[in-house]
Amino acid sequence: MDSGFRRNNDEGVWLEIGFGGGEHLAHQAELHPDINFVGAEPFINGIAKLLALIEEKRLTNIRIYDGDARYLLEALPDASLERIYLLYPDPWPKTRHAKRRLVSAETLAHFYRLLRPRGLFLFASDIANYVDWTREHISALGGFTEAGESTQPFENWVRTRYETKAKREGRETVYLQFQRNHRP
């Protein structure tokens, strides 16, 4: 079955995990029509919002995975992604629930396997201990170099509803970029 994605695309595929309402994903797809995008989101309301944006903007370079992203990560081929976005993931703030966080040794090992050399993992959170958690897990895994930290959004950013909520509640977002090294 043909996915509809362009073949021989040197730019590769960009993945956004947990795209929420799809604002960021649709914005990036509109800015980069020559890049293929995959969005993973298990919640039907978020998928419906993204589908409305896809129709409104007539986007043809987005595919949706409507389930738990961990299953998608297991199925994708090695070095198939140029970028992975994880923006405002559920922080699972209680200590006993932290094991449910998407950032884990297992997930980061998949990120390393899936990203091309020099590919980027872009992470944004307004929860300070999740930012620290992510750095600690990246450091423990190895294979990544921190390519940037800022309180300023990534290039070509569009504010999401989660970011708007964080700002309204007085929380500062931290934007982290990690680049995949050639070897772990």
Folded structure, characterized:
The radius of gyration is 16 Å and the shape is globular. Strand 1 (13-17), helix 1 (23-31) and strand 2 form a beta-alpha-beta unit. It has a domain at 13-101 and 115-152: Rossmann fold. The longest helix has 14 residues, at 44-57. Helices cover 34% and strands 25% of the residues. The mean pLDDT is 90. It is built from 6 helices and 7 strands, in the order E-H-E-H-E-H-E-H-E-H-E-H-E. Strands 3-2-1-4-5-7-6 form a 7-stranded mixed β-sheet, sandwiched between helices. With 184 residues, the protein is an alpha/beta fold. Helix 1 (23-31) packs parallel to helix 2.
The string of secondary-structure elements, in order, is EHEHEHEHEHEHE
* Uncertain segments: none
Please report the total strand number as a whole number: 7
Query: Which secondary-structure class do the elements indicate?
Result: alpha/beta
Shape: globular
User: How big is the Rg?
Assistant: 16 Å
Number of helices: 6
CATH class identity of the domain at 13-101 and 115-152 = Alpha Beta
What proportion strand?
A: 25-35%
Assigned CATH superfamily of the domain at 13-101 and 115-152: Vaccinia Virus protein VP39
Strand order of the largest sheet: 3-2-1-4-5-7-6
Question: Mind summarizing the main beta sheet?
Answer: 7 strands, mixed
- Looking at the overall shape, the CATH architecture of the domain at 13-101 and 115-152 is 3-Layer(aba) Sandwich
- Overall pLDDT: 90
Helix content: 25-40%
- And the CATH topology of the domain at 13-101 and 115-152? Rossmann fold
Ends distance: 35 Å
